[in-house]
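Side project, low priority. Logging it here so it doesn't get lost.
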Amino acid sequence: MSVTTGSASDSTQSTAKTVGIGAVAGLGAALLGYLATYVATASTIENSTASQVLEALGSNISTWKVVGWVFMNAHGVTTNFPGLFGTTSSTNLIEGAEAFSAALYAVPAVALLAAGVVAAVACGASSAKSGAIAGGSTVLGYLPVALAGLALFAITIGDAVARPDPVTSVLLAGIVYPAVLGTVGGVAASAIR
C-alpha cells in the first residue's frame, strides 16, 4: 500500500516540477519576446513623428510602453486609443505603420515554440502527453505578463488611457498563444527524443 502512495506522491511531484518548469519557460519566452521587439522597434518609435507630437502636447509617452503595444500587436491584440467625445478606436501598429515589419508576428510564435521545447526537454518528456503538459504549462508564465502589460503599457492621454485591448490581451496573448504554441513545441521535442 505504501508503494501506491509513493508512486502517487512521485507523480504529483513530477507534475509540479513539469508545471513549474513550463511556467518559467513561459515567463522567459515573454521577456525574450518583448526584448526582441524592443531591439527591433525602439529606435523607429523614438524617431517617429507621432511620438514627437505627443511629447510636444505634454503626453508622457515612454518608448518601452509603445514597444509593449507592438509586442502585444504581434499576438493579434489591438491597441485601444481614446477618441473624441468618449469614443475609442483600435489599431494594430504592425499593420497600420509601414515602419514595422510583418516579421514581428513571428517573435511570439518562435519564442513560445522554443519555450515549449525547452520545457519538454528540461522535464525529460518522453511521450507526446508529457511533452504537451510541459509545453502547455508555459501559459502559467506567459499569462501574468499579458495581464501585467495591461497596466504597464497604459499611457494616459488627457483624461483617457491608451493601452492593449484587455479581452484579447488575456485570451489571445495570455492563453491561446502559449497554450497552442507551447504545446506544439513540447510535443515536437518529445517526438524527437
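Brief comment: The chain has a mean pLDDT of 89.
Revisit when time allows.
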